[in-house]
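Please decode residue identities from the backbone states below.
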């Protein structure tokens, strides 16, 4: 029995197309998909819905397909979902080979807590990398522990796994540490109130000095 971590998937060839057939296919618990790449003609297949739905919760998953007895490595490149019900309607699969490098968008995960009173703003949730098709990292970690206001972490600052190279612009902003706007606004209000109190006290002192002089 296949498990969530088992990427071996049995795919059935399909010769019927169209929205009506795809709808009937999904009603039987299968997902229509197309395999393309490496100069080959597109191959239309049906995938087991439940197993594949579990697998694609992980970004850039590589499926080991069994297509009528022929093994084929494929990278999930695009997942089309119903915008309302989030039902998987179609999947695009790119043919890959072991040792081949591919370009993928890898999710960013922020770890740690920045300096007290600041927050870590994730400006880009993914970063484009070139990696081996069978060694795609699940995510790239960014440690913000203790970082102070004004600190910027760019794509060029990221620690990449062995064999991975940066495709994105090295200056691409990934995380920015800042003081929340609400906190700044509150500090401004306090400063203004303190200034008003100081001005009032100064006026009172001046008036008292004038009275004493009289």
């Amino acid at each position: 029995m296949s498990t969530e971590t088992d990427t071996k998937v049995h795919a059935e060839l399909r010769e019927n197309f169209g929205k009506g057939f795809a709808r009937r296919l999904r009603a039987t618990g299968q997902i229509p998909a197309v395999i393309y790449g490496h100069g080959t003609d597109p191959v239309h297949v049906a995938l087991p819905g439940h197993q594949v739905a579990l697998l694609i919760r992980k970004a850039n998953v590589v499926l080991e397909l069994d297509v009528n007895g022929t093994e084929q490595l494929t990278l999930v490149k695009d997942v089309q979902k119903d915008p309302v019900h989030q039902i998987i309607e179609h999947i695009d699969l790119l043919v890959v080979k072991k040792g081949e490098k591919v370009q993928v968008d890898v999710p960013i995960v922020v770890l740690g807590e920045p300096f007290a009173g600041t927050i870590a703003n994730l400006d880009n949730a993914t970063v484009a990398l070139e990696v081996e098709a069978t060694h795609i990292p699940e995510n790239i970690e960014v440690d913000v522990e203790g970082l102070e206001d004004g600190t910027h972490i760019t794509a060029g600052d990221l620690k990449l796994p062995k064999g991975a190279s940066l495709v994105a612009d090295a200056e691409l902003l990934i995380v920015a540490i800042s003081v929340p706007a609400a906190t700044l606004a509150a500090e401004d209000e306090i400063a203004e109130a303190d200034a008003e109190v100081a001005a009032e006290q100064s006026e009172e002192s001046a008036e008292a000095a004038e009275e004493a002089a009289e």
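Observation: The mean pLDDT is 87.
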